[in-house]
Amino acid sequence: MSSQQSFTVQDPHETDPYEQQFSLGVQYESAPNYLLEVGYAGTKGTHLIGSVGVNQPLLASVSSPVNGITTNTVENASLRVPFQGLSPTTGVSEFISGFDSTYHSLQVSLTKRFSHGFQFTSAYTFGKVLDDLGTGSGVFLSSGGVSGDQHDLSQAKGPADFDRKNRLVFSAIWQLPKTTLASSFARVVANGWEVAGLLTLQSGLPLTITDSAAATIYAGNSRAQFAPGMSAADAVLSGPVTGRLNEYFNTSAFTSAPPIGDGTGFGNSGRGILRGPDQRNFDFALMRRFRISKLGEAGDLEFRAESFNLTNTPSFGNPGTDRAAPSSFGVITSTSINPRILQLALKVSF
Known about the structure:
mainly beta; eleven-stranded mixed beta sheet; two-stranded antiparallel ribbon; 2 helices
């Protein structure tokens, strides 16, 4: 028997968390108004605070009984816990300072300062963030707990939920050249225009393949089990995302978790072993300012025509990752950014 009560406790031996940051960079002016920067940046978080479920059921045997229990069944999970009378796993959540994180990145940027009516900034980052307590399962002083086996924090080590392996951002503004050959009316219409663009390309987010039907013998949560002879490499499928909407990754690379008693144990796949769809987006704007002398020295009218996702390129959301939900497992049903949006705007300044 177990009650509906739960407790949150603090480790009396908790250590203060701290973060270390380190970076090294060089700058080079390759040509007038052009600046190239190449650098390394890293961060290490130590003794980060998160919660674990310390009431996870133990495995019993004849040689090592648990509270007098010698067999492992789904029914007796509440009797195999360290603290009887409280719910298995989630009945006692303890905040500990046993987590850490690391971030390493190569960062390259090229900037052109404004000259001849044109400027741009481009930045590329190749990096990786590793941690053992994701944002979706409980972080610093938040509810929830580490995924998988609560007695083995190392098994939850993997790419952070927000990790982007590659990210490129390019933005530019260009004042279109003025013409002096046309009529005065044509010059008024054609001159003074500016265009601006923002291009974003980035890798997909990490995917952790879960199995809500696994770890029943522990009354906990679990990642999925690899099929015999399979690994993360076998789960990767190639080709355009549009051709993989109904099976983004190889779902047959995963199988049922190993049986324990009349239930199942933890799956052996790691955290963040796959990547979701990448994202590509280009925003564009056309602008023109008209002088309005009656509004004073600073008076002008600004016209803007803007397009978000100008090319109407679809960026898809992540697929379903729970093996126990076969209808959605590996299936993409949403997009992560809006389709093309057009808008017009007028702004008066005085």
